[in-house]
Amino acid sequence: MSSVAKGDLTIMAVGDVHVDRADPPSVFEHVAPLLRQGDIVVGNLEGLNCDRGAPIIGKIEVGSRHLRSAPDNLRALESAGFNAMILANNHNMDYGPEGLLQTIALLDEKKIAHSGAGRNLEDAHRPAIVERNGTRVALLSYTSVFPPAGYAADENTPGVATIKVGTSYQAPENVQYQPGFPPLVTTTPDPVQQDRMVSDVRQARQLADIVLVAFHWGVSYGHGKVVGYQKELGRAAIDAGADLIMGAHPHALMAMEMYKGKLICYSMGNFVMDGFTSSHFGSDTMILKCHVRNKQIVKCSIVPARISAQWQPTLLTHEQSVEVMKKLDSMSADFGTMYSMDGDEIVVGGPRPGTPPAQRGLSIEPHRGLPVLVDALLPLPYITKKLRGIYGKESDA
After folding, report:
1. pTM assigned to the model
2. Region 109-113 average pLDDT
3. Which domains are seen in the chain, by residue range?
């Protein structure tokens, strides 16, 4: 354990974890000594650990598949010190309620906390509470990426915690002059489900000293851009009391944002996706370290790693870490996020002084009363002018 003073601890978090091999602990052999130094170690369980259930019908994701591995693969999590897992994603109902409930039972047996899925809606929205060294940490998780049927938990049915998102496309006014000009794209979270998430965070804030919120969100297949609803949900969670936002689904590292002094990791990338190779999977990955003092996160740093040909995360040299820092700096330029080296770790801070609020995501106030963040390959002044004409004003977000 890394804790020294009462109330101090280290939270470590990683992205997607799917272990499927004959010797499960071997996948973490290069990083387990570091992970075991964490007091709370969290990852996104990308796929079930079960041998029950049948593949659900109607999964229509292009290029996707039903994903699970044998229950014995959970030994890998134990060996590396994982004690909390994120369950809300687009694979953890692939084998129906039976597969999900078996996975949950196995995690419970191993005393690995979990959030984002359960026997019913209330269970799926209940925070996992982990206490270490006198500090209580709550974990909530949600997915906005899921099949249209058979995935979301409801009052009496097992499933995952979801936040639906609508997408609309609007042709720019100069399209007659430049056919094919990119559209304005608006992604809008379901207001009822967003409000439920906000309420969950507020309630978790009453139960714990630190609240972690995980979102399975964004666009995969190498898109590489943070889209509007991600900014809206991440910032709304922090406004409600979250201390850290952990994103997954794009399978590659993406931008980070410091919002009101709290970190939003829009995509933490793959950590282990055993046996999977894809052109849009990033080989760079990371271990996020959150240093807690007096029951508050006082510093966030990144330990960069790279996924080997054997799908094992491996720590980088100092020079390689500097190269990762430069990539993150470029990806996060719109948010003004600052990165600096502290030994072999990358410290995250910001936003950089002088970063215009509008540059961190254009926000407008539509008639329904919720912020809408617009994505387009258009100059910011053009979008601002266009939206001011539609909605009458522009606000800083």
Report:
1. 0.90
2. 98
3. 9-164+189-351 (3.60.21.10)
